[in-house]
Amino acid sequence: MAALDLFGRRWTLRIIWELGNEPLGFRLLQRRCDGMSSSVLQQRLTELQEARLAEVLRDGNYTLTPLGHDARESLGPVIEWSRRWAAELADAPSTAAEGAGDG
Amino acid sequence: MAALDLFGRRWTLRIIWELGNEPLGFRLLQRRCDGMSSSVLQQRLTELQEARLAEVLRDGNYTLTPLGHDARESLGPVIEWSRRWAAELADAPSTAAEGAGDG
DNA sequence: CAGCAGTGCTTCGGAATTCGAAGCACTCAT
DNA sequence: ATGAGTGCTTCGAATTCCGAAGCACTGCTG
Predict the structure, then answer these.
(1) A28 touches chain B (CB under 8 A)
(2) Distance CA A13, CA B33 (A)
(3) Which chain A residue has its CA at the smallest distance from B55's CA?
(4) Which helix (H) or strand (E) holds A55?
(5) Which residues neighbour A36 within 8 Å (Cβ) at sequence distance 6 or greater?
(6) How many Å apart are CA A62 and CA A65, to the nearest integer?
(7) How far does chain B reach from its first CA to its final CA, in angstroms?
(8) Which residues pair with B33 in a beta bridge?
(9) What's the predicted TM-score (pTM) here?
(10) Does residue A82 contact residue A99 with C-beta atoms inside 8 Å?
(11) Does strand D come within 7 Å of the CB of A26?
(12) Which of A78, A83, A84, A94 to mutate to test the interface with B (most CBs of B within 10 A)?
């Protein structure tokens, strides 16, 4: 449950996802995350490091630890699901409440 | 990315997980989620229904839609990962212990 | 050395979200 | 009528998030 709590913080999932693609510097990572607040990014980065999911490279860039990459991969199915979800919403914008499609 | 944003709200992941186990009533679901705030639970339940992930049964209980169950299943790997993560943290509690020689 | 730009990180006031307790209308069993 | 439980709502306060500004440091240019 602690994991759901950790991931249930704004931007955490997104940061892990972005960092999983490639090591990123602070400011660049910030841009990748829709220009999220730097104060919160710093906060998340610290939490991620304490959780052993992220670490700082010699060159200063942020990256995922092996455990972090593991977490990122576990997010794969969630991303795949999100595509089906987006398709569902596009297919049935907001008319599910009325009438039974079956009959 | 919208999915990561939706899930990046406090309790959302937890609610989906708990609801995936079995249909639950409002108050019972609240207890399952560590007694989270009722106002926020109501908020999340509404969001989840709008996102077509949850719905209300004839008997009044809340449950996951097929799409919701799909999402719940996509969370499986994340849950499995969290176990490895917990094991890692238990194996290497903190960096502080390494340098702390005195005491 | 001086100027410009970019980086990681911090501070701070205001806005948004979450919390937590209380309460309302309703149902079921006594 | 009474006691207990349910879904849901309201509201003040605590916490988190936002967003802009700034600091110390580095690389490039002249």
Answers:
(1) no
(2) 20
(3) A97
(4) strand A54-56
(5) A11, A14, A30
(6) 10
(7) 48
(8) none
(9) 0.89
(10) no
(11) no
(12) A78
Q: Which residue is nearest to nucleotide D6 (CA to C1')?
A: B27
For B21-44, the pLDDT digits (tens) are 999 999 999 999 999 999 999 999
Residue type, A4: L
d(CA A44, CA B55): 33
Helices (H), chain B: 2-7, 12-21, 26-32, 38-50, 66-74, 76-91, 96-99
Cross-chain CB nearest to A1 (options B8, B14, B52): B14
The tens digit of pLDDT for each residue in A21-73 reads 999 999 999 999 999 999 999 999 999 999 999 999 999 999 999 999 999 99
Which of A8, A10, A70 is the closest to B81 by Cβ? Answer: A70
* Local confidence pLDDT in tens for the 103 residues of chain B: 889 889 999 999 999 999 999 999 999 999 999 999 999 999 999 999 999 999 999 999 999 999 999 999 999 999 999 999 999 888 876 544 443 334 3
